[in-house]
C-alpha cells in the first residue's frame, strides 16, 4: 500500500497537531469526547499531519482495536490528513501481544505513516522525511521512539535490573545515531524532531533551570535512570525538539541548550486512565453529575499541541496548545527555580539563597 508523502507548504511551513493520551477504551460512549475533540481540532487547525504520541488505545481486544483505528483513519483521510503513531506504555502492553497487532493494523490503514522497525528495539522506531516545498529533498525528519511497557531489563553482570518503561534502550540510541548519520551522508545536515511518549529526565531540568511556558501540575514521570538520549540528540546537532505526553496534567514547553522540550496536551476523557484523582473526579462531574449539582469546571481542559516547522530556518517557528473551546494557550511563563552552577556547587534546594544575582 502506498503511504502518504509529507511535504512543506508553498509558504515554507508545516503544521503538526500532536494528540496524546486519548485513552480510548471498550466503552464507546466514553470514547466519544476524545474522538469529537480530534475532529474539532483538525477542522480548526487544518494541520498537515497528526502525530499521535502514545496511549491512544487502552484495550487488547482485536476487533475493537481494528474498529477504533479504522474510525480514526477514516476521519483523517477524508480530510486529507496523514498521521504518525508513537507507542506509549498502553500500546506496548496487553495479553495478546497488542504491540505487534497494532503494527499490523496500522500497516493496512491508508493514512498511517508507521514502521514497526527492528523488534530488538521494541515497536515503532522509525523516521519519516518531510520533503521541501520544491523538489524531493528532505527538509526535516520526524523520528518516533517506542517508550516500552513496564518490563524489566538487566544490564549488569550481577543481575541488577530495573523497569524499562520510559527508558530508551541502548539499541535505540545506536539506531538513532546510525539513522541520523545515514541521513546526513545522503542529504547533508537536515533538522529533526523526535516524538517520544514519556518525558525525558531533562524535562525536570528544564523546569528547574531554564524556565517554561505552560502547566506543570504533576511530577515529571520519567525513567529512573537517564539513558543519555538528550545528550545524544544535543551531540548530533540537528535535533530541534522532543515532544512527549504521558503526564496528563503537564503541558509545559521550553528550550534547553537549543532544543525545545514540550508536552502535548491530554486529549482523552476516559476516567480510568486519568491522573491525578482530582482530574478524574472533575471529569466525572463534568460529564454527568449524579447528585443534582452543577457540573464542575474541569481544571485541565483537553486539547492538542500545535507545532509549526519552518523550512527556511530549519527551526520550530511556533508551538502552542489548542483547547477544545477554541482557546489558544501558550501558557504563563514560569522562570527557572535555580541557577545550574549554584545548584550543583552548593547542594540541595533550600540550602542557598534566591535565584537573583548576588551582590
What does this molecule look like?
By secondary structure, the chain is α/β, with parallel strands linked by helices. The chain is built from eight helices and 18 strands. The mean pLDDT is 85. The chain has helices spanning 28-45, 62-77, 98-107, 170-187, 202-210, 229-236, 277-287, 340-346, and strands at 6-7, 13-19, 49-52, 83-85, 112-113, 126-131, 138-145, 152-154, 161-163, 192-196, 212-213, 239-244, 253-256, 259-263, 303-310, 315-323, 328-329, 333-334. It is 27% helix and 23% strand. The longest helix has 18 residues, at 28-45. It has a seven-stranded mixed sheet. The chain has a seven-stranded mixed sheet with strand order 5-4-3-2-15-16-17, covered by helices on one side. A hairpin with a 4-residue loop joins strand 15 and strand 16 (315-323).
Short overview:
The chain has 359 residues and is of the alpha/beta class. Helices cover 27% and strands 23% of the residues.
Question: What key attributes describe this structure?
Answer:
seven-stranded mixed sheet, 8 helices, 27% helix, 359 residues, alpha/beta, 18 strands
- Tell me the radius of gyration: 20 Å
The arrangement of helices and strands along the chain is EEHEHEHEEEEEHEHEHEEEHEEEEH
Number of strands: 18
Uncertain regions spanning at least 5 consecutive residues: none
Amino acid at each position: 500500500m502506498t503511504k502518504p508523502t509529507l511535504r512543506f507548504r508553498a509558504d515554507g511551513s508545516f503544521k503538526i497537531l500532536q494528540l496524546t493520551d486519548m485513552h480510548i477504551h471498550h466503552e464507546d460512549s466514553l470514547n466519544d469526547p476524545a474522538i469529537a475533540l480530534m475532529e474539532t481540532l483538525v477542522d480548526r487547525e487544518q494541520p498537515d499531519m497528526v502525530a499521535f504520541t502514545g496511549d491512544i488505545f487502552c484495550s487488547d481486544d482485536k476487533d475493537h482495536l481494528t474498529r477504533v483505528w479504522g474510525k480514526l483513519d477514516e476521519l483523517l483521510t477524508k480530510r486529507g490528513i496523514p498521521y504518525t503513531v508513537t507507542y506509549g506504555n498502553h500500546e506496548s502492553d496487553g495479553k495478546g501481544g497488542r504491540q505487534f497487532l497494532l503494527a499490523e493494523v496500522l500497516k493496512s490503514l491508508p493514512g498511517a505513516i508507521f514502521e514497526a522497525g527492528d523488534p530488538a528495539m521494541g515497536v515503532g522506531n522509525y523516521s519519516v522525511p518531510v520533503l521541501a516545498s520544491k523538489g524531493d529533498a528532505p527538509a526535516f525528519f520526524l523520528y518516533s521512539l517506542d517508550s516500552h511497557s513496564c518490563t524489566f531489563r538487566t544490564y549488569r553482570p550481577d543481575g541488577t535490573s530495573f523497569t524499562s518503561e520510559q527508558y530508551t534502550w541502548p539499541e535505540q540510541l545506536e539506531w538513532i545515531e546510525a539513522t541520523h548519520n545515514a541521513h546526513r551522508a545522503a542529504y547533508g545536515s537536515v533538522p529533526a524532531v523526535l516524538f517520544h511518549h514519556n518525558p525525558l529526565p531533562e524535562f525536570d531540568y528544564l523546569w528547574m533551570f531554564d524556565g517554561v511556558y505552560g502547566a506543570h501540575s504533576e511530577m515529571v514521570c520519567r525513567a529512573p535512570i537517564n539513558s543519555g538520549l538528550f545528550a545524544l540528540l544535543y551531540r548530533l546537532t540537528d535535533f530541534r525538539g522532543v515532544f512527549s505526553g504521558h503526564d496528563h496534567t503537564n503541558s509545559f514547553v521550553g528550550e534547553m541548550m537549543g532544543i525545545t522540550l514540550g508536552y502535548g496536551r491530554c486529549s482523552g476523557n476516559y476516567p480510568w486512565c486519568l491522573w491525578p484523582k482530582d482530574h478524574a473526579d472533575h471529569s466525572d462531574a463534568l460529564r454527568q453529575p449524579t447528585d443534582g449539582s452543577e457540573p464542575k469546571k474541569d481544571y485541565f481542559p483537553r486539547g492538542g499541541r500545535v507545532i509549526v516547522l519552518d523550512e527556511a530556518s530549519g527551526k520550530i517557528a511556533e508551538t502552542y496548545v489548542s483547547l477544545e473551546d477554541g482557546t489558544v494557550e501558550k501558557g504563563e511563563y514560569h522562570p527557572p527555580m535555580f541557577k545550574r552552577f549554584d545548584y550543583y556547587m552548593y547542594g540541595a534546594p533550600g540550602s542557598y539563597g534566591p535565584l537573583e544575582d548576588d551582590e
